[in-house]
Structures are given as C-alpha cells and as structure tokens.
Amino acid sequence: MEPIKTVEGRAYPLGVKNVDTDMIIAAKWLKGITRSGLGKGAFEAMRADPGNVFDDPEYAGSPILIAGDNFGCGSSREHAAWALIDMGVKVVIAPSFSDIFSGNAFKNGILTVALPQEAIDRLLEVAKTDPIHVDLEAQSVTTSFQDRFQFEIDPFRKSCLLGGLDEIGLTLSSTASIDAYEKDRESQQPWLTPELA
Amino acid sequence: MTQPRTLYEKIWDAHVVERRDDGTCLVYIDRHLVHEVTSPQAFEGLRIAGRKVRRPDLTLAVPDHNLPTTARLDGAGNRLPIADPESAQQLAALERNAPEFGIKYIGATDAEQGIVHVVGPEQGFTLPGTTLVCGDSHTAAHGALGALAFGIGTSEVEHVLATQTLLLKPSKTMEIRVEGELGPGVTPKDVILHVIGVIGTAGGTGHVIEYRGKVFEEMSIEGRLTVSNMSIEGGARAGLFAPDEKTFAYVKGRPMAPKGADWDAAVAYWKTLATDEGASFDRSVVIDAADIAPSVTWGTSPEDVVSITSTVPAPESFADASKRAAAQKALDYMGLTAGQRMQDVTIDHVFIGSCTNSRIEDMRAAAAVVKGRKVASRIKQALIVPGSGLVKRQAEQEGLDRIFIDAGFEWREPGCSMCLAMNPDKVPAGERCASTSNRNFMGRQGPGARTHLVSPAMAAAAAITGHLTDIREFAEGEAA
Ligand code: SF4
User: Fold this and answer.
1) What residues does each domain of chain A span?
2) Contacts with B39 (C-beta within 8 Å, 6 or more apart), sequence order
3) Are residues B173 and B199 in the same domain?
4) d(CA B239, CA B228)
C-alpha cells in the first residue's frame, strides 16, 4: 500500500448525498477476478449523464473526491474502494461516511476526511478552479485562498496510512509471534501438518 | 484449578497468537479451503504486494460454485469448455493461482473434486480442534467434526493466505440441546430447520453454537455436517459438535488425516476438548425432540419453517409488524395463500444436492424412497448432484445411480449446482423447487425461483408424487 502524507491536486466536486456502493460500482462488475481495472466501471450510472464531473477534462485524474453526506452507504462490497483506488482517488472528503465503507477504504489505503457541511460547500467552490491540499500529518485541508480546515482521524488509522501499512502489513509486523506459535504447535502437535500426497 | 471451559473456549484459547488491549486477538488458522469465487482478488492482492502464501501446506483449493454439473470430458477424454465466460474466467484463475502459490489443487476432472465443504471432511483435511476458514458462509459445516470453522470475506482470505492468522474478537457461546427421541421420518435436516424456525435467522448472531444432548450425540457425522452447515442460517458464525468416538472413526484413515503414533496423540488431545462439566454458555436453548416433525419452508427465509402437516401461515398471525409485512411479501413471491395445506403445494423441480445434503447417507436416503418408483410427470427436472466425485463413485458402486436414473432423475457431476444460480443449473422464474439446499432466499436458485427447503427423503418423495409430501405417510401408503 502506498503511504499517504500529503495529497495535492484537483478534486472532483461531486457534492452529492447518499452516494451508495451501487452507484460507486454496480453489481455487474462484481463477477470479475481482479481488483484493478474497476475504475472503468466506477460511477457508471452518473457518467451516463453528459455534464458529469468524472468525464470533465478539467478534473481528469483528480486524486481527491468531494461528496455529500453518508458517502459509501449500501452493501459491504470492497469493490467500491477498489474502484476508487483504480481511478486514482486517494482522498474522499465528505460530511459523513458509512462505517463499512470507511473501513474498506482504510484497508485499501484511501483517506476519508469528514468535515462540516460549510467546509464542504467552500471546498466544492474552490475545487471548480483550483487544487486542494490535504496534509495527513497536520490533519488539515487547505486551499491557495488561505482556507484551512482541521479534521479528526483515529490515531491508529493515521499511523497506518502514513506508513502505508495495510492490515496484512500490520499483522506481518507480528511475524515473530506467529513464528513462535507455529514452532510450538509443530513440536506439540506435529500431526497438524498434513501429509500432502 | 482452571475455570471450566466450553469446547469453543478451548479451541479459541489454543489458537490465540497475540491478544490486543481492546480484546481483539490474532488467531492462528490451521486449515484454509479455497474455491474459485472468493479467491481471485486475494491472490491478485498478494501478487501486487509481492507476498507469498505463508503455509501452502495448510491450504487446499477446489473449484465448485461455477462448475457445470454436466459431463466435463468429451468422448476422447478432452476437457469440455465452460460456456459462461465469467465462470470460465474464475475457474481458470483458480487453476492458475493454486500452482503459482504452491497450493494443493483438486481440479475439475479429478476423482476427489467436489463441494469444498464435502471435500474437506472427506479428505481428512478437516480435523477436530482446529480452526478452519473458507471464503464461504457455509464453512460452519466443518464444526460437525469439532473444528471451529467459519466463513470469511475476500480481504480476510488474502490475510489468511499471507499470514495464516486472522484478527478476531471472541464470540459469545450458545448451546442448543435437543432432548428426547426423534419421531419417525425426522432427519437431521428437519432438526436444523426446526431449530432455525425456533431461534430465527438472527437467533445466533454474535454466537458460536454448540449442539448438545442425546439427539446430537446419536447423530451420524454426516447428519452433524447437515446440522452444523446451517448454523449460519440461524445467524451464528459457527456451529460445533464435541468430537467423540464417531468423529474419530470418521476421520481415521482419511488421506490427509494423521497416521500411526500421530493419530494416537491426536485422539488423546481431541478427547480433552469436550465442554467441561460446569462450564457456562451465554445462552441456552432446549428443544424437545418430540416437537420436531418432518419440516418444510414456506417462505423466503430459512426461519419460515412449518411441519409438513401444517398449512401456510397467515401474515396476520405474526406478532410484529415488520414480520407481517415480510410474510406477505414472501407469500406473494412464493405464489402461496395463507391456509393452503403444505402437502397440496405442487412442485416443478427437485434438487437433491448442495453442501447440506449431498453425502452418501443423503444419496441412500433418497434412493430408499425412489426405489422402484417413477418421477411424477409434472416434474420438469429432478436433479441428483453428489457432493464429490468420491460420493458419486460410492453411490454408483452401491447401484444408487441406477435407481435414480430408472426413476427419471438426472445423475450429475459434483458441484454446488442448483444451490445457487451461478452455474447452468437454475430454477426458472415462477417455478417451484423442493430442494435439499440451505437457502430459500428470493432468487437464490434463479431469478424468480421458488424454493422449499426439505430433507433428501422428502425431496425424493416430492419428486415421485409431484407435490410436497409427508414422508411418514408416503412410506406406509405407497410402498413399492
Ligand atoms: S453448495 Fe451452496 S451453500 Fe454449499 S458451498 Fe456451494 S453454493 Fe455455498
């Protein structure tokens, strides 16, 4: 997983409330065998709309997405996070997120930033013309117009994102304990290792 | 003196690698079963991160969900292509990933291939006292052998592949006791359907169920697999049976089971696992065996269970409003009316199979009903799908296939088949199926399909009569 320290760039000024996981990635994309490549299917229904922000060249490749309340509600599909990563989004800023989505986003190295609606409104405005700057270390979102919004984040999540540590990476930092457990198990219950024909 | 502990607590304690301050534990996983649906992105994740599978020797891969159950080889012994491109892609991915990561793979045309939850116990991969996971919610089945077994999602599959551990919080414990004697015609499937009817689909949420009492003690391992399999339909993540002499006899001599001195040491350990005298459960449910009749579902949730002799319940008969609304919706979907006798409900399809009921005892139970009889003319399709190639071969040695084929059943290759609408075996919209599988959700057997969950004997009887049938009357009234 790539560490996130600061992210600067244009942001998709989506602003829509209750963007559910079906809107992020529709069910028909779930039968595949990869987590990469899902960016193609991201926000498919919205993209059918000619004036949508995702196909506006102005915002192409933006690393930040600004959305409305309750982003990521709906099913628990991890594909929603995979789709965002694949389209290059590293940070989602919204007034609130569904718990399952923010968990999945975190697992996949996406920073979710919750800010009050006034801040969102201001950022949506700026995003139309100018880049936005997110600093995870300082827990701030700033603009070139002297706006500065502080956000809260769970310290554990913060350190994982800063270090680029995913859950597997974290568990692997306990490798010594796992090795020790296995050694013990092997000596006490050798029959747990199956004979492979 | 140590505190008396339950079977669950003993297995849990023996697998904690690290305990975190918030109660989360890093838990060691002894066995990992992998199939083609929930694993591709996990392998891809490993590849992207440059990680290996920590213990390929504790991992076993077998395709089941997407495989068509029609012939897999042509006359010349060449593999037949899989028509659905997405199924073919998932199957091909597993076939590639397993050797790439050094995992033992039982392929589509191997004699041992079958549904993961049939193959695991059959190969001796599933052992008492172990932790076992699979990216499939019916992994609970393996609890029949006293393994702490539960389903996981794709990111957890990847976590287990990479680390052989999972981060988990301990569950609460729940005992279900069925006391007394089961009546005639009542099978393990009827017992678990009845239990789910009593506790509801959320009854076991947050708990691991231990099945206790005389009925479960006397039950065969295959029957226990049927019961434990459906723990998840009662909301529990896992079900457990204390390993006993029946368990040891079942496991002994299986290909991947311990041998010689290892076997003796293993059995000695397994004997220590049963719940201690005086250990307490967070919840206890006691059911009188005499209350359990041959059972059938009428709705679209596994808790919508009635005795085969009763009628379709009226939505108004439910106390809470949301349940009333759900019942009405279920009746509309199922095309049933309140007050209709269950035995008058006509059937279009019969499916005997799935990880719940596709083992040799299930085949025998169905064959005993079918023998010398014919499938009713109104039945459009009657499928018998053994749970594995070994079950199939055994049944053929016993001549069961002839009994089924002569009666008008189709005798298929092993796989998940009509349990879920992911391979070509589907129930068409609006048509009705008596099925030995575990889920009667809307669309589970195909969009618009109507499912009645029953035991293998009752499914076989429905195939012969063309309607849901009380197996007790059937045996007496229409003996061949
Ligand atoms: S038979 Fe059905 S329940 Fe069992 S593993 Fe296959 S799809 Fe899942």
Assistant:
1) 6-153, 166-197
2) B61, B93, B94, B97, B135, B154, B157
3) yes
4) 5
Q: What is the mean pLDDT of residues B163-167?
A: 96
Q: Is the Cβ–Cβ distance between B66 and B84 less than 8 Å?
A: yes
CATH number at residue B162: 3.30.499.10
A180 vs chain B: nearest CA distance in angstroms? 9
Return the C-alpha torsion angle B415, B420, B423, B426, nearest 10. Answer: 110
Q: Is A148 on the interface with B (CB under 8 A)?
A: no
pTM of the model: 0.89
Q: Quote the pLDDT of residue B479.
A: 44
Q: How many CB atoms lie within 10 A of CB B260?
A: 8
| Residue B262 shares a structural domain with residue B323 | no
Question: Is the CB of B5 inside a 6 Å radius of any atom of ligand 1?
Answer: no
> Would you say residue B451 has pLDDT above 60?
yes
Q: How far apart are CA B359 and CA B391, in angstroms?
A: 6
pLDDT of residue B477: 43
What is residue B151's three-state secondary structure? strand
Q: Which CATH architecture has domain A6-153?
A: Alpha-Beta Barrel (3.20)
Residue span of the structural domain in which B165 resides: 1-293
Does residue B419 have a pLDDT over 80?
yes
Same domain? B281 vs B385 = no
**pLDDT of B184 above 70:** yes
Instruction: Spell out which residues of chain B touch residue A193, defining contact as CB-CB under 8 Å.
Output: 57-58
ipTM value for the complex: 0.93
Ligand 1 and B65: CB distance under 6 A: yes
pLDDT digits (tens, 9 = 90+) for A156-169: 889 899 999 888 99
Q: Residue B150 forms beta bridges with which residues?
A: B133
pLDDT in tens, B453-462: 999 999 999 9
Contact B113, B69 (CB under 8 A): no
Buried b or exposed e, range A113-143, using 16+ CB within 10 angstroms: bbbeeebbebbbebbeeebbbbebeeebbbb
Q: Are B434 and B383 in contact (CB under 8 A)?
A: no
Structure tokens at A164: 């680029």
The pLDDT of B388-411, averaged and rounded, is: 98
Q: Which residues of B324-359 are buried (b: 16+ CB within 10 A; e: fewer)?
A: eebbeebbebbebeeeeebbebebbbbbbbbbbbbb
Hey, are the CB atoms on B40 and A191 less than 8 Å from each other?
no
